[in-house]
Amino acid sequence: MTATEARPTASLGHEELHRIDRYWRAANYLSVGQIFLVDNPLLHEPLRAQHIKPRLLGHWGTVPGLNFLYAHLSHQVAKRGTEMMWIVGPGHGGPAAAATAWLDGTYTDVYPDVTQDTEGMRRLFRQFSFPGGLPSHNAPEIPGSIHEGGELGYSLAHAHGAAFDNPDLVVATVVGDGEAETGPLATSWQSHRFANPARDGAVLPILHLNGYKIANPSLLARIPEHELVSLLEGNGYHPRVVTADDPETAHVRMAEALDASLDEIADIQRDARSGGPVPNVRWPMLVLRSPKGWTGPDEVDGLPVEGTWRSHQVPLPAVRDDPEQLRALEEWLRSYRPGELFAPNGAPLPEVCASLPVPERRLSASPHANGGLLLKDLRLPDVRDYAVRVPEPGRVRHQATRVLGDYVGDVIRANPRTFRMMGPDETTSNKLDTAFADSGRAWDARRLPTDEYLDPDGRVMEVLSEHLCQGWLEGYLLTGRHGLFNSYEAFVHIVDSMFNQHAKWLKVTRDLPWRRPIASLNYLLSSHVWQQDHNGFTHQDPGFLDHVLNKKPEIIRVYLPPDTNSALVTTDRCLRMRDTINVVVAGKHPALSFLTMDQARAHLERGAGIWEWASTDDGAEPDVVLACAGDAPTRETLAAAALVREHLPELRVRVVNVVDLTRLTERHPHGMTDRQYDALFTANKPVIFAFHGYPSLVHRLTYRRHGHENLHVRGYKEEGTTTTPFDMLMLNDLDRFHLVMDVVDHIPGLGIRAAHLRQRMQDERMRCRAHTREYGDDPPDIRDWTWG
């Protein structure tokens, strides 16, 4: 099937055309006003310099195209009754989103002081890109949005996340031509191959080619038309191209193209839901070619503006000081004929809003864009049913993620339309594949007899793009569902920037009462730094924790469960939380278990606590505190404690395990008070802290605590290779023998009388190193060590 060039037809009646055009002109007028005006919103008097904002911040170039599309999408919803939301991919479309929400009445519903009259219009204009007002991008403050425009590339991924398990929803998604050049967006074109038209909603991509980015041509707008069409067809779409010549022709062409596309979506879904076989689906999409800065100034100071990169931001940058530019702005605003659009009191005239759908179907009021309104609690199995038996601490081994896979699989089974797990082709590698017993991998492309677990109705989403997994999950959460993202620890960094945007979104929405809380974004990181035996240095990086803990404390939770039962109760807690980002690091290899289920739950409630069975202080003041966070550091700390108990029995040793890393800082809602911290770690005794990640993070969290000068942290120090687990620990001085050496070095007066022990620990390190080099494995006494 080839691309269809949409041609003028009689499908759009004369009166319908004029209703859509009035709405478009009104939205354009409001958008220009937001960029420039601080007063005189309806030009009731000649425009003067004092009516202009002192700082012109905002963007015009993409806005008229967005307003054009919104007007047509609203018309289709009104005509068809379609349940639709829209996503604005172009980063600088903030004025359009605010203008259309105000015209619809949704903005006033949410912000009653921004009324639909002259004063409300003045407030709308004044607050845009103004201190204390709206950001210049499409942002959480604007109703109808789930997609912050500050960073490009995620619109299609968010859209498909919104459409999964929403069978009646159409997500109209505008992809900017600059955005289309990003890596995440390039991958996102394949998202429809993971959607099941029998069960999921539909995404209607609209590639908006206005020719330029900030200062350069956009690539897809410049390649030959047949190459563009071939590219889109190769991605599995049936593209319809709408070229905006003059506005009237453009209106007719867009109406025809949207009619055909929405009919095509309905046909695909009807066929898929009839119960018969579904052939290879080619979804419709639109391409809109329109000038950048459409309907704006043709030229400024003798240079072309409309249809060029100069219209990207503020086409009249000197309007406050240049009388000619001021005159041009007034002509520009009056070219929309505001007297035909707004009553003398500033209210939109009825004929402007005549093409809008009923209030509950307005794009700006979609409940899917305020997902907390639709959110229902998960049906969670009793986590105690998955507990592993721990008859004694540190004597038996279990695989944390394999047990978690059983739990997650049952969560999927109990919540077949509201929970999904995403991951970049690592579910099996991370030993979570027991979840496949209850759900296969979502897949709607060709299958071969050798494939395993591929299922059009699968609930586990796997694609080798962390960006795409993150985007899908964000869209799913933001529209009122739940999920889990599993990843290799080292490569979750790929979504650092996407994590940033979601954290910022949550931070802002917490202060917007009308935004209802959504389910938390949950990361389960495995294949972690301390046991990347076969992949080596490139796969050894625990730094995501540092990145996460830079964000607002009320948003962030970081958990380092020491064993399997702790990982279970931690994951169960995270799936119940709202408006947070939770990071759980759990190993996938067999590891010692220390806590029963009841002990693990109590330990998680405390967040950090003394393990009395491993300590020898007997309730007295300890000589040294051996602290740990993470499964491998916990094992090494306990082994070090056993060595100290054997060789220095007179020392009083306290073992403290930290499962909730945010307990360490007083600046977090989970943070301990100084009194609690001092009771646990003491204020004046040496603390040897074995940490999963970079040592500087623990220092950053505790630098204001009493006795910080006595805190000595061992962790990852960027030493790694393909080697054995214990050799990896020795490379970073996190092994048990080095921890004992730290005890000798940091307890005052112990160095001289324990010099023999310190030397013996050095010898033990050399013995282990030599063994690994000769036999390719750790010594049996290290590999098979158990407590007691």
Task: Write structural notes for this entry.
36% of the residues lie in helices and 13% in strands. The chain has 788 residues and is of the alpha/beta class. The chain has 3 domains: 4-273 and 280-366, Rossmann fold (3-Layer(aba) Sandwich); 383-592, Rossmann fold; 607-783, 3-Layer(aba) Sandwich (Rossmann fold). It has a 6-stranded parallel β-sheet, with helices on both faces. Strands 13-10-14-15-17-16 form a 6-stranded parallel β-sheet, sandwiched between helices. Strands 19-21-20-22-23 form a 5-stranded mixed β-sheet, sandwiched between helices. The longest helix has 26 residues, at 247-272. The radius of gyration is 30 Å and the shape is elongated.
Quickly describe the structure.
The chain is an alpha/beta fold. 36% of the residues lie in helices and 13% in strands. The model has no long low-confidence stretch (mean pLDDT 94).
Mass-distribution shape:
elongated
Overall tally of domains: 3
The CATH architecture designation of the largest domain is 3-Layer(aba) Sandwich
Distance between the termini: 71 Å
The CATH superfamily label of the largest domain reads Thiamin diphosphate (ThDP)-binding fold, Pyr/PP domains
Give the proportion of residues in helices. 25-40%
